[in-house]
């Protein structure tokens, strides 16, 4: 324990605490936030039995969205039983927006407490009887709770320690909101990528350095077709051989000039036509935030492939199972067909009397040769039933 902290009003002025507070203020990932919180609590407070961060302040699914120090060894059933016995949620429901609370406020120390299931099955079994909690709210709704506990033989929380927690509260609130916002944006991106991955036409998004931010498989195939005038050969991967066509780089420059000149209202766009493949076009446009001066606009490309590709192939016409299987070795065919029936790797290994590692390696080879990326797609293209 740092001597200066014990004798003053805590203002995060010691180098150790100031460094942890700065890490909290800079955190963008949950693990960074939790590391800083652990540092502040273990450095700034005298002694702790344990502390838990309930990221879902209402514990709708006990044991999930929970960070515990020391690391919890309990399963979800244990957390469910514990949640049912805890009086914390009832107390906070009756005291909305309270930033800090204690165990004595929730359940005064009386004979009735000692006889309660909460005392016998939570306090005694876990070995603590002192608690301070920090609650975080959003328009009256409880978002998160940080609970700090002390053992039976530990001292009470001191006034200067409570002052330190009061000072920590707004910093942690801001950091938590920032991390939640970043994770929400990741979720939205993941949903958008899943949607666009199933979009029937190619969609490609690039930054101002022409680095791919997102592209579905149809977009990579379309870029190969745009660059070479013919579809990507089966032996190659359009993703592995990807190059952004020069036409689109030049279009980005023209669109940026239009945007800077304040041309036609709305987001500027161009419709490009492939020089040799009939009816093959692409719409390119800028994606920008009017309020942003930090990031350059993104380039959004929507491909409109021709109904018929060079060589007489029809766009979107699925290849037969026989054609797909012909790309595989006989042993890879066995693995692929069983996996397409819905068998797990372990079940395939048992059926074919192979090691699990061999099955995984052969299945990875299948994915590469068929240019697919997951089991669901394998089931979709190979389906079930007899081959032919």
Can you walk through the features of this model?
- The protein has 388 residues and is an alpha+beta fold.
- The protein has three domains: 3-187, Beta-Lactamase (2-Layer Sandwich); 200-304, Beta-Lactamase (2-Layer Sandwich); 321-382, Winged helix-like DNA-binding domain superfamily/Winged helix DNA-binding domain (Arc Repressor Mutant, subunit A).
- The chain is 46% helix and 16% strand.
- It has 16 helices and ten strands.
- The strands form two sheets. It has a five-stranded antiparallel beta sheet with strand order 2-1-5-4-3, with helices on both faces. Strands 7-6-10-9-8 form a five-stranded antiparallel beta sheet.
- Strand 8 (269-273) and strand 9 (281-287) form a beta hairpin.
- Helix 2 (15-26) packs parallel to helix 9, helix 13 (330-340) packs across helix 15 and helix 14 (345-352) crosses helix 15 (356-370).
- The longest helix is centred in the middle third of the chain and has 39 residues, at 159-197.
- It is flat and about 85 Å long.
State the helicity in percent bands.
40-55%
SSE class: alpha+beta
Estimate the global geometry from the Cα principal axes. flat
Number of strands: 10
Largest sheet: 5 strands, antiparallel
In terms of per-residue confidence, which ranges show pLDDT below 50 for 5 or more consecutive residues?
A: 1-8, 313-318
Instruction: Report mean pLDDT, rounded to a whole number.
Output: 86
The CATH superfamily of the largest domain turns out to be: Transcription factor LuxR-like, autoinducer-binding domain
Instruction: Quote the beta fraction.
Output: 15-25%
What's the CATH first level of the largest domain?
Alpha Beta
Our count of helices gives: 16
Rg calc? 30 Å
Query: How do the strands of the widest beta sheet line up side by side?
Result: 2-1-5-4-3
């Amino acid at each position: 324990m740092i001597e200066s902290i014990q004798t003053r009003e805590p203002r995060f002025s010691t180098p150790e605490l100031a460094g942890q507070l700065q890490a909290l203020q800079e955190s963008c990932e949950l693990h960074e936030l939790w590391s800083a919180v652990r540092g502040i609590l273990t450095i700034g407070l005298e002694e702790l039995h344990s502390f838990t961060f309930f990221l879902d302040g209402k514990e709708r699914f006990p044991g999930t969205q929970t960070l515990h120090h020391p690391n919890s060894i309990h399963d979800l059933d244990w957390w469910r039983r514990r949640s049912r016995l805890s009086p914390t949620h009832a107390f906070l429901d009756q005291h909305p927006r309270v930033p800090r609370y204690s165990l004595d406020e929730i359940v005064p120390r009386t004979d009735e407490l000692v006889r309660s299931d909460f005392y016998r099955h939570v306090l005694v079994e876990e070995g603590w009887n002192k608690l301070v909690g920090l609650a975080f709210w959003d328009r009256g709704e409880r978002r998160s709770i940080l609970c700090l506990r002390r053992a039976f033989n530990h001292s009470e929380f001191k006034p200067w320690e409570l002052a330190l927690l009061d000072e920590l509260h707004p910093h942690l609130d801001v950091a938590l909101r920032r991390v939640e916002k970043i994770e929400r944006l990741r979720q939205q991106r993941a949903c958008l990528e899943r949607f666009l991955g199933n979009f029937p036409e190619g969609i490609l998004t690039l930054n101002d350095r022409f680095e791919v931010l997102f592209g579905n498989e149809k977009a990579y195939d379309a870029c190969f077709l745009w660059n070479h005038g013919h579809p990507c050969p089966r032996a190659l991967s359009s993703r592995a051989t990807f190059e952004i066509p020069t036409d689109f780089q030049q279009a980005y420059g023209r669109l940026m000039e239009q945007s800077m000149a304040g041309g036609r209202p709305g987001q500027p766009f161009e419709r490009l036509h492939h020089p040799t493949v009939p009816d093959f076009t692409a719409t390119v446009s800028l994606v920008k935030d009017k309020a942003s001066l930090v990031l350059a606009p993104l380039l959004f490309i929507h491909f409109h492939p021709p109904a018929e590709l060079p060589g007489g192939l029809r766009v979107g016409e699925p290849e037969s199972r026989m054609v797909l299987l012909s790309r595989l070795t006989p042993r890879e065919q066995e693995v692929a067909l069983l996996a397409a029936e819905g068998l797990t790797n372990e079940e395939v290994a048992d059926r074919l009397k192979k090691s699990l590692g061999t099955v995984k390696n052969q299945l990875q080879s299948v994915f590469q040769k068929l240019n697919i990326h997951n089991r669901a797609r394998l089931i979709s293209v190979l389906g079930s039933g007899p081959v032919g």
